[in-house]
Amino acid sequence: MAHVVYLALAGFLGGAFGSMVGLGGGIFIVPALVLFLDVPVHSAVSASLLGVVATSTTGSITYLRQGLTNLRLTVTIETALSAGALTGGIVGVMLDKEALSAIFGGLMVIVAVYMVWRRKAAPAPLAEGAELGRFGACYVDPGLHRKVTYSVRRLSLGLFAGLAAGNVSGLLGVGGGWLTVPTLRLGMGVPMRAAVATSSLMLGVTACAGALVYLVEGLVDPATAVPVVLGVAAGAVLGSRLAARVKSSVLVVVLAVVLLALAVEMILASVGISLR
Amino acid sequence: MKTRLDRLLSALLLVGLSLAIVLMVVGAGLAAAHADGGIGHAGSVSDIPRALAGLEPGGFVDLGLLVLLATPVARVLVLLIGFATRRAWLFSAISLAVLAIVALSVVIGLRT
After folding, report:
1. In the prediction, which pLDDT does A77 show?
2. Contact A208/B76, CB-based, under 8 Å?
3. Confidence of residue A228 (pLDDT cuts 50, 70, 90)
4. How many folded domains does chain A comprise?
5. What is the ipTM, given to two decimal places?
6. Which residues of B touch A78 (CB under 8 A)?
7. CA B84 → CA A248, B77, B88, B90, distances in Å?
8. Which stretches of chain B drop beneath a pLDDT of 50?
9. A49 and chain B: CB distance < 8 Å anywhere?
10. Predicted local distance difference test score (pLDDT) of residue B37
11. A222 within 8 A of B58, measured Cβ to Cβ
12. Neighbouring C-beta atoms of residue B15, cutoff 10 Å
């Protein structure tokens, strides 16, 4: 019984942090299950993928209700993200996994430091009546209680990041939120809350395809997956509600800490020390 | 700003997630009530109706997991229809492309 509680707790923490910053939560769940709860890697990865679907679904219920999710941007980058995940296996045989881990681990450190450094630099506010463009949107910020209007720039950068995130998620077993949230926020002019909500929604579909394969192949252990998914759902409710109450700059710091933790994991993997 | 489509999608995700959780909790409850207390699989997807009829825990759990995975796919389908009703054909086509890529990923994943 205690084991079931620990599985649910791992899911709860993954869901809470994941939904708060627009990640799937797999970066917490897989190491926690493998390192501390002796769950076989295949069962841990399949439970984590199901957890990512649960985090995305649960968090997005709240974010959609708050009008924070940019649906046109979600579905557009989702195309690149899912195409990247599909081609990940093909590209995977041509690349050295350790080198890739080191490169992306280093990139995450740079992104995390840059995000903290620029955490208070909000995108330039649009003038009243300014053209929003095809992907621009507006929402009422739940923390500031005022309308925020933004346009989206450098869509090609977002598509490239989506493709890379999808590719790497297949190769290295991490979700794509670590790259999509910073790209939306820093590269495309999307405010932090909208970036978190948009990333959160798009991650579900990508994880869903992988999880379905695991399920049909009988590689999902229900005794592990069920407590993790239930824990994730509860945690993601808390995380998405907390996200509305804290300042955007605090969300940035939380994301940066998560990115640094993942970077350490990836850099260690590049020198042969696997935490999974 | 929040639109009707946002509310519809939020409701769809809520219904899908709630149904999945209820099915998984029922499955876990039935497993706990059985002598061995373990949760197994129903077998293949085609075995789920039989397992449900026999009140086997695996049937409820497998159906719950399938409902959970079907929810994001249904969300893309609703987006496709939602964009089409607004005559946003470009985004409707992009949604269709996402569905096609996901279907292709599953097919390739099952064959490798």
Report:
1. 94
2. no
3. very high
4. 1
5. 0.91
6. 76, 98
7. 34, 11, 6, 9
8. none
9. no
10. 63
11. yes
12. 14
